[in-house]
Write a structure and sequence with these properties.
Subunit structure: Heterotetramer of two alpha and two beta subunits.
Distance between the termini: 27 Å
Number of strands: 10
Enzyme class: ligase
Protein name: acetate--CoA ligase (ADP-forming)
Shape: globular
EC number: 6.2.1.13
Low-confidence stretches: none
Oligomer: single chain
Helix content: 25-40%
Catalytic activity: acetate + ATP + CoA = acetyl-CoA + ADP + phosphate
Radius of gyration: 18 Å
Structural class: alpha+beta
């Protein structure tokens, strides 16, 4: 697990970068068994067409560039591409949008991803405090985190008991528990994700500065969860510095 993640991390640092693009961040998460979609990075149009066929239409397209970390602002996330003809057209559009937003943007490729069915949105984050070290954050996504700041924190590493308490102590917990006759969300999948993120950061604490998994779609009980978008900011370890 750690070795696979380190290969990705060291490759990014070797390029003089500390901000991982979404594809790279998800490769690190995948190494620790976190649920990520079946996505592929296409560097050419032919690869994009091949991957879309393998994944199955409709697909989403997300341009990967170290200079464009806020993809929505640059209009480089295009959804619900239904046919090869539409993909060819959108391939031109997504590159044009990138160059308009940042003419100097280095383009690593375009992520071809399945269109995911919506679930209840959660956010999992990691920050580093100079005094306490790395802390894990959990909350509901969307308006709950943006407006209500309904989140909870624990110092890493956490236990299973910590993970379960984090989930139940947010004000929005009834939404996960199944308010108004809805099926409960897959709480076990959330517990597993929190523990895996804790393990990842604990083992790679010399490298991880910040992490943001937002949104994560959580499905009904027994149906799992999936990381829709991910961001990781690295730090250069002291023993690896110049």
């Amino acid at each position: 697990m750690k070795e696979e993640a380190l290969k990705v991390i060291e490759s990014v640092l070797a390029q003089g970068r500390t901000a991982m693009v979404e594809y790279e961040a998800k490769q690190v998460l995948k190494a620790y068994g976190l649920p990520v979609p079946n996505e592929k990075l296409a560097r050419t149009l032919d690869e994009a067409l091949k991957y879309a066929e393998e994944i199955g239409y409709p697909v989403a397209m997300k341009l990967m560039s170290p200079q464009i970390l806020h993809k929505s602002d640059a209009k480089v996330v295009l959804l619900n591409i239904k046919t090869p003809e539409e993909l060819k057209e959108k391939w031109e559009v997504i590159h044009e949008n990138a160059h308009k937003y940042r003419p100097d943007a280095e383009i690593l490729g375009v992520l071809i991803a399945p269109m995911l069915r919506p679930g209840r949105e959660i956010i999992i984050g990691v920050t580093e405090d100079p005094q306490f070290g790395h802390a894990l954050m959990f909350g509901l996504g969307g308006i709950f985190v943006e407006v209500l700041k309904d989140v909870t924190f624990r110092v890493i590493p956490i236990t299973e008991r910590d993970a379960r308490k984090m989930i139940t102590e947010i004000k929005g917990y009834p939404i996960l528990a199944g308010a108004r006759g809805e099926k409960p969300a897959d709480i076990e999948a959330i517990v597993d994700m929190l523990l895996r993120v804790s393990e990842l950061v604990d083992e790679l604490r010399d490298y991880i500065k910040e992490m943001d998994l937002n949104p994560v779609f959580v499905y009904s009980e027994g149906e799992g969860a999936v990381v829709v978008d991910a961001r990781i900011i690295l730090k250069v370890p002291e023993d690896k510095g110049p």
